[in-house]
Amino acid sequence: MSIEVGNKVQGKVTGITNFGAFVELDGGKTGLVHISEVADNYVKDINDILSVGDEVTVKVMNVGDDGKIGLSIRKAVDRPRPERNYDRKPKYNKKPAAQSKQPEDFEDIMAKFLKDSDERLSTIKRQTESKRGGRGARRG
């Protein structure tokens, strides 16, 4: 099988570094599996997963103009896709939440407005009173 981007090929680990593993492919060519492409989870030490001489299936990710071959072990593994159920219809509320409540009468609306207004005025008064005096500063 030729070495083209997207192909899955068999290879043998020939060297391990702290940033990845070198894999010898068919035809004597060597590619690099970066440490981030070894497994789906975080890999702190690549020696925990691979060792020299291991036979691995890799996917060719890129082939550079200079002959460098980028490989991935984690993308070479076929994972089943979760099935989707398109027969199920989404559930929608017939009435929005604002329409489902009983309409308020004028007195309730006015009482709510007065309460909010009083709260706002009291906070404004507290803020201005604290700025007027304090710490003995007199004008003179």
Automatic annotation (TrEMBL):
Biased composition (Basic and acidic residues): 75-90, 120-132
Region of interest: Disordered: 74-106, 120-140
One Pfam family named in its UniProt record: S1
Molecular-function GO term, any one: mRNA binding
Residue intervals of the S1 motif domain: 6-74
Gene Ontology biological process terms in this record: translation
Matching CDD domains: S1_RPS1_repeat_hs4 (cd05692)
Coiled-coil stretches: none
Family annotation (NCBIfam families): PRK08582.1 (NF006363)
Protein name: S1 motif domain-containing protein
Annotated source species: Listeria aquatica FSL S10-1188
Lineage per the UniProt record: Bacteria, Bacillati, Bacillota, Bacilli, Bacillales
